[in-house]
Amino acid sequence: MTTSSPALRDHTVHRRHRRRVERLRAVRFHALMAPITLLWAAPVLFALLISVRSLDDIVSRGLGALPTSFSLASFTEAWNAGVGRALLNSVVVTAPTVVLELLLGSMAAFALSRYHVPLRRLILAVMLAGNLLPPQVLLVPVSRMMQSVGLYDSLLALIVVHTAFGVGFFTFVLHGFMRTVPEEVTEAARIDGAGAFTIYWRIMLPLVRPALAGLAALASTWAFNDLIWSLAVIRSGELFPISATMLSFSSQYLTSWNVATAGAILAALPTALVFFVFQKQFVSGMLMGSVK
Amino acid sequence: MQGLGAAGLAAAGLGTAGCVTGGSGSESSGSSTLTLQSSLVDPNSSGAMQKLVDLYNERGGEASLNTVAADTFNAQLPTYLDSDNPPDVMVYFAGAITQRYGDRDKLLDVSQLWADELSEYPDSLRELSTDSKDRQIFVPTNYYWWGVFYRRSVFDQLGATVPTTWTDYLTLCEEIQAQGMAPLITGAGRDPWPLVAWFDYLNLRINGAEFHRALLRGEHRFDGPEVKAVFTEFAKVLPYFHPSSRSYAYQEAITPFAQGDAAMYLMGALITDVLPDDVDDLDFFQFPILDPGVPVAEEAPTNGYLAPARVRDPDATRDLLGFLASDEAQVIYCRDSQSSSVPTSPTADTSWTSELVQKGLDLLGVADDLTQFFNRDSSEELQQTAYTACSRFLAEPGNVDAILAEWQAAAEPIWQDQSA
Amino acid sequence: MTSRSSSAVAEPAPAAADRRAPGPAARPRRRRGRVPGTVWVFLLLAGGVEAIWIFWPALSTFYFSLTSWDGLDAPRFIGLENFTSMARDDVFHTALRNNAVWLAGFAVGSVILGLAMAVALDRPRRGVGVYRALIYLPMVFSLLVTGLFWRVMYQPEGPVNAILAAIGLESWQRQWLADPDIVLLAVLVAAVWRQVGYVMVLYLAGLKATDPALADAARVDGCSAWQRFWHVTMPQLRGVNTVVAAITVIDALRTFDVVWSMTGGGPYNSSELLSTYMFRQAFTNQALGYSSAIAVVIFVLTLGFIVFFLRRSFAEQK
C-alpha cells in the first residue's frame, strides 16, 4: 500500500469516491423510503395503537391521539365475543378448500395438458371464464340451490362453492405448468406400464410441487378472506367465518373502537402470519396467478 | 340496522320459488326443536332472549335461539317465509311490512291466540296486528317511545329549561349554541334512520298522523306543499346540528352526547341500551308542538313475534308464541334487555320500571295517535328513498325542491310494485 | 379477491420452459389419441363441480334478470323491462358513473404507485426487504378488514384529521366518508392502498426479467434516468403491463366489500357502485329480478374488458 503506483492510487480514490456516492445514495434512498413506508403502515399502526387503549382514553382524547393507557383486554374481549370461533370456522373452511381446489384443478390440468381431449382449449377457456364471473351474478341462485340440496347453512356449502369458483383458475394455471413438463418424462412411465392415475400422482404432481405451494398460499388467503360467499350460504351466527363475523361484530362494537380494531387485527393476523412465514411461496403464487 | 350491515347478503335469501330448484332444506326435518330466529345482537337483549328460551325448555318445551345480525335477518326473512323449513318463530315488528306479508298468506294465523290469551289487549294493538283479510298475524310483546333526550347535568350547567313549543325549542338551540355547545346531534351517517325520525316527527306535528300514513302509502306526494312545509321547518334546525352528525351512525352519535359535546338527541328509548352507566342523568321531553290544532301523535314502535305460514308444527309454534306473549315472559324480556321497552300486555307488572320509562308510558298514554316508524309504516324500500332525501337535504338545504321531486320520482315505482 | 381475476393473460413466465409458441409446433407429438377413462373422470370432477355451482347459477341469473321477483312468490317473466327501467334509474346512472371513476382511479392509482415502488425497490440494498414486505402486507388483509382500518382513519376525530391538524393543515380536514364530493376518492385510497403491493410484486418480477445491458448502453449514450426508464425499461415491461391492466380492471369491476364496509354506498348514493347497488336491490329491497339485471350488466362489462385484454395479449404474442 505504501508504494502504490499512481494508477493504483487513482483507482483507490475513485473507489472511495464511488463508495461515498453509494453511501449518499443509500441515505437518500432511506430518507425517502422510510417515511413513505411508515405512511403506508400508518393504518395498521393506528389500529394497533387504538386497540391497546382503554375506551375512556379514546372517548376523552379522540381516536387520533397517542395512547395514555395500555391494555390487551380488548383482544380478549374480541376473541371471546366470537372472533375466536369465527377464526376457527375460517380455518375449517380454508384447509379442505385449498386441498380440493388444487386436487381437482391439477387433475383437470393433467387431463387437458397430457391427453388429446377434444376441444381442450375451449374447455380450458370456459373453465377460466367461470372464475372471472363477478360473484354477484351467482349469489342468489347459489344460495337457493344450497337450500334445495340441504347444504345451506353448513361449512360444507362454503367449501363446495369456494372450490367450484376457484377450480377453473387453478386448472388454467397448472395447465400452463404441466405443459412445460417434457412429454418424454410421462411417456417413459407410460411405456413402463403406468396408468394415467399413477402418472398423475407419482410423476406429474411431484414435478409441479413448487407451483402447488405458491398456489396454496394464494388460495388460502382467498378462502380465508372471503365475505360474500359466506353471507350467501350461511345463516347461523356461530357458523360464520371471520369476515362475515367481523361485519356484525363491527356494528355491534361500533362505539367500542378499541374492541372493534382489536377484532380487525385478530382477523388479519392469520393471513399476515402465513404471509410472513411463506413470503416466497406467496410472491411466486401471485406471479403465477398473473403470469400464466 | 346500523353498521356494516352487509350481512345482508346473507340474504342470499332468495325465495325458493321458481325454476332452479324444488323444495328446500332437508336438514333438521327429524327434530322437533323449534327455532326462534332473532336479530337482537346486543348482549343484554340476546341474553334476555336466551333466558326466555331456557325457561321455555325448563317447562317442557323444546326451542333453540339463533341470533344473526339485523341486516342478515332482514335479507333472509322473505326466503324463510317461503321456504319449506323456515325458523318457527321470528322476532319482528308490527306495521305495514308485517301486514303485507300477511296479505300474501305468508304468515301463520294466530287469531286463536288473540281470541284467548291476548283478548284483553287494546284495539289499537289488535288492529296493528291484523292483515287485510282480518286475520291476526302478529304477536306484540313490547313497545317503546321516542323523545328528545338530554342530560340533566348538561341542561343544569347550561341553565336550560325544557321547551314545549317549536319557537321555544329554536330559541333554546340558539342559546345553547351561543354557549359553544352543539345543541343537536343525530346519526346521519350510514343508515341514517335517526335523521328520518326528524322527518317523521315534523310531519306528524305539522300534517298529522293520518296524512303521514297516507303519504307513506302513496296517497299524497313528497313534492306537494305539505311536505315542503315540513322541510321549511326542518331547515330551521339544520344550523344547530353537531357537524359530525353526518358521519355518525346512531350509536356513534351517542358518544358526543354522553360527553357533553352535544345537548339533545331525538331518539328512541333504545338509547338507554347504548348509553353507558349514568342512565339516571338521562331525561327526555316530548317533541315540541308546532301546530296546536293538529292531534298529537307519537312514535311508538311495537315489537313482537311472527311465524311463517309454513311452519312444520303450527300447534307447537302457537304454544311457543303463547309462552312468549305471557306476562311473565314479556316482563323478563323488557327488564333484562334494559332497552326501556315496556310490555304490551295490559296485565303485566310494570312496577319495576324506572321513572324514565314511566314518563315515556305517560307520554304515549295521552297521545291522540301512535305511529310505528317510517319503515314500519311503509317499507324498507321506501325508507331507502327517505335516507337519500333527508341526508341530501342535510348537505344541500338550498336544493329542497329538486330533492323532493326526486324523492317523489323514486317513491312512485315502489308504490306501484306494492299495489301490483 | 384480488386476483382470482389475475389469470387473464400474458407471457413473461419465468417457470415456463417452452413458452414460446402455443401453436402446433410446440405441442408434443407423441400424445396418444385415445383418452383413458381415468382422465375423463379427472376432467369431469373439476368440470362438473364448476358446471353445477357456477355455470348453472349464472344461467339462472340471466333468466331472473328477465323477471320481476321479490323472493316471496314465483318469478314473473317481464322480458326486458328491468333493463328499460335501468335506463330511467338515476341511482343506476350514478353507480355506473362512479364505476367508471372507480375503474380509472383504481387502475391509474395502483399502477403508478405500484410501478414507482417497484422501481424504487428494485435494486437489492440493505432494508429493501423490509420496505417491500410492509408495502405488500396490506394485500393479505381482506377487503373487509381494510375497510375497517380505514373507517377508523377517516373518523371525524380520527387519525387522518389529527395528522392534518398536527402539521398545520386544519383547512384540509374533512368528514371524509360523509362528504359526497370526496367520499368515493376516500374509499378509493383504501382500495389502492391494498392493491399497490400486488402491482409492485408483478413489476418487480418484470424488472428482474429486463436486460440490464440495454440500460447500461443507454447510460453510456448519455440518456437521463427518466429517458432510460421510459424508452428502454418500459418497452420491456409491456407483457407485465397487460397483466397488471387486466388484473386491476377485473378487480375494480368486482369491488364490493371495501365500499360496503366503509360507506354502504352513501351518503345518498354518492359512493354507490354497481356491485353495492345490486346488493342493496337484492337484499334490502328484495328486488331480485332487478338486481339480477344489474348483475348481468356487471358481467357484460367484465366480459368486455376480458375479451379486450385477451385479444390484445394474443395479438402481441404473434
TrEMBL record, chain B:
InterPro entries: Bact_solute-bd_prot1, SBP
Start and end residues of each stretch annotated as Disordered: 21-42
Gene3D superfamilies named among the record's database cross-references: Periplasmic binding protein-like II
Top-rank taxon: Bacteria
Comp. bias intervals (Low complexity): 26-40
Protein's name in the database: Carbohydrate ABC transporter substrate-binding protein
Organism: Jiangella asiatica
From TrEMBL, chain C:
Main location: membrane
CDD domains: TM_PBP2
ABC transmembrane type-1 domain boundaries: 96-309
Annotated compartments: Cell membrane
Residues of the signal peptide: none
Keywords (A to Z) from UniProt: Cell membrane, Membrane, Transmembrane, Transmembrane helix, Transport
Transmembrane segments: 37-56, 100-121, 133-153, 182-205, 287-310
GO cellular component assignments: plasma membrane
UniProt keyword Membrane present: yes
Region of interest (Disordered), residue spans: 1-31
InterPro entries on file: ABC_transporter_permease, MetI-like, MetI-like_sf
PROSITE patterns assigned to the protein according to its UniProt record, in alphabetical order: ABC_TM1
GO biological-process terms attached to the record: transmembrane transport
Feature: compositional bias, Low complexity: 1-26
Membrane topology: Multi-pass membrane protein
Family, as annotated: Belongs to the binding-protein-dependent transport system permease family.
Protein name: Sugar ABC transporter permease
Organism (species): Jiangella asiatica
The organism's taxonomic lineage, starting at the top: Bacteria, Bacillati, Actinomycetota, Actinomycetes, Jiangellales
